Amino acid sequence: MTTTLSRRSAAEFLGTALLVAAVVGSGIMGESLSAGNAALALLANTIATGAALVALILAFGPISGAHLNPAVSIAAMIERSLRRRDAAAYLAAQATGGIAGVILAHLMFQLPAIQVSRHARSGPAQALSEFVATFGLLATIHGVSRSRAHVAAFAVAAYITSAYWFTASTSFANPAVTVARALSDTFAGIRPLDVPQFVIAQLAGALAATFLFRWLAPLPRSGDRVVYGGA
């Protein structure tokens, strides 16, 4: 039975909200318990995010594909496995879900619901990191979904978990999550001023991976559904 667009959009909203709540909430908890040890706080943030990704992709994947990420939805639209109207609905659900997730995380830790982040993340190295992080995420999705889609949840979570540590930006790799994190003046935050650079780099990385995989491993003309999102 085909799932309606309203149900798929609701799944994208809920999945993105819970993903952002996990990212921001674990950042708050990790920082509060690490006694100033940034590496320990990042480790806590990484483990929680990776675990949440597996659970959320498995839960919402059968409903919406669990994109949870505008870059993934745009790639799916390019691959013609997601119609433009559906992609627009997904993007709106992801953007609003991300903001809802930030608010939820703040309320759980008795912080102001909406903040403006002062965490600077700027410069060429940060932009390159986001390009690499998102390129790798989409390469993982495209590669796995063409051959072993049943393990995509674990592959995506494994990649994001590692990318937290091998990229200078700690691998946002998701425009909706990036915008949402600008509203959190916590460990996971990013200054609103730095958001455009991140989003441009993320979209560039996603497009590069998508067009590369059109050549590396072309999809059958009937099209395979592109599934699963990122942090």
Structure description:
The chain is mainly alpha-helical. 68% of the residues lie in helices and 0% in strands. It has eight helices and no strands. Helix 1 runs parallel beside helix 4. The chain is globular, with a radius of gyration of 16 Å.
Short structural description:
By secondary structure, the chain is mostly helical.
Indicate the topology.
Blueprint: H1 5-33, H2 38-64, H3 70-78, H4 84-108, H5 124-145, H6 152-166, H7 175-181, H8 195-216
Helix pairs in contact: 1-2, 1-4, 1-7, 2-6, 3-4, 3-8, 4-7, 5-6, 5-8
Keywords summarizing the entry:
single chain, 231 residues, mainly alpha
SSE topology string: HHHHHHHH
Question: Roughly what percent helix?
Answer: 55-70%
Q: What distance separates the N and C termini? A: 29 Å
The secondary-structure class comes to: mainly alpha
